[in-house]
Write a structure and sequence with these properties.
The protein is of the alpha/beta class. It is built from 6 helices and 17 strands. The strands form 2 sheets. It has a 13-stranded mixed sheet. It has a 4-stranded mixed sheet with strand order 4-3-2-7. The longest helix is centred in the last third of the chain and has 12 residues.
Length: about 290
């Protein structure tokens, strides 16, 4: 699924490159920045694609300089803190963001790959269906979560965060995998329906609140104890599915200690305020 985190000089030469023209605090709705919208267009047509710049709709070329290359491989650089919805609903191709980027990155994506060489704002991967997002920095709150009023959040795919992630990651998650190599904020996996959330740092308070099914793994332990609506089940060998996923993560380049693959885990089930078929696994040594 992941083709690597570094780009060769040849790849950089052939990619389509967008460079932010100037810094601004005015939000930019950049859902048009996606291989789905670029494929088949000439340079002038890409530059005319509409973006919302605050309350105004402006052509992409007014905000970004564009160097046309492979439309399936897009690189974005410059001050992108207030650039939102990059890769929203994308179905194929690759986007590489050089630096920090704003909210809703890859929301609703159904395929393809997004790599961010920096930090990401809130709601990255919201309602994601397939594809992959790799964030080489920190992620904001509600990673892979659901928008207000929606019953389900992330429905498939993979999200990896090298740093920390904010609160309510994997909220209402239905399928897929989220991996946080740093620490996680509060309410991780809240109201989770299914899927897996792996945290290699410390997992924040009240994880799994209201979860129905799914798996939370706190490799670095829990900052606070679990809610009283979770029950200790057993201490067991590493489950087969967990060993498979951890070896897959190692193959993708993550540093996974052998004792996490072969060790023993304390298993807790809950949340009994729902159907109570979720589980939280914590290594025995923590």
């Amino acid at each position: 699924m992941f083709s690597g985190t570094e780009d060769s000089h040849e790849t950089r030469k052939t990619a389509t490159t967008l460079t932010r023209r100037e810094s601004t605090t005015i939000p930019i709705e950049a859902d048009a920045i996606s291989p789905d919208h670029f494929v088949g267009l000439e340079l002038a047509e890409i530059e005319r694609l509409p973006l919302w710049y605050g309350r105004r709709k402006v052509p992409l070329g007014e905000l970004f300089s564009v160097e046309l290359g492979d439309p399936n491989d897009i690189h974005i650089q410059g001050d992108l803190d207030h650039v939102k919805r990059v890769g929203q609903n994308m179905s194929h191709g690759r986007i590489t963001v050089h630096g920090d980027v704003g909210m809703h990155l890859g929301a609703g994506m159904t395929g393809g790959q997004i790599v961010v060489q920096g930090n990401v704002g809130a709601r990255a991967g919201a309602h994601m269906i397939d594809g992959s997002i790799w964030i080489h920095g920190d992620a904001g709150p509600m990673l892979g979560g659901a928008y207000a009023g929606e019953k389900l959040g992330m429905k498939g795919g993979v999200i990896i965060v090298d740093g920390d992630a904010g609160s309510r990651a994997a909220e209402r998650m239905r399928r897929g995998i989220i991996v946080v190599q740093g620490n996680l904020g509060d309410f991780g996996g809240a109201r989770m329906v299914a899927g897996s959330l792996f945290v290699f740092g410390t997992m924040g308070a009240r994880p799994g609140a209201g979860m129905k099914r799914g798996t939370l793994v706190a490799f670095g332990g829990l900052r606070q104890g679990l809610l009283p609506t979770f029950t200790y089940s057993c201490t067991c060998e590493s489950p087969a599915f967990l060993r498979y996923y951890l070896r897959r993560l190692r193959a993708w380049g993550l540093s996974v200690r052998e004792e996490l693959i072969t060790g023993r885990y304390r298993r807790h089930t809950g949340d009994v305020t729902t159907i109570g078929k979720g589980e939280v696994l914590v290594p025995e040594q923590n």
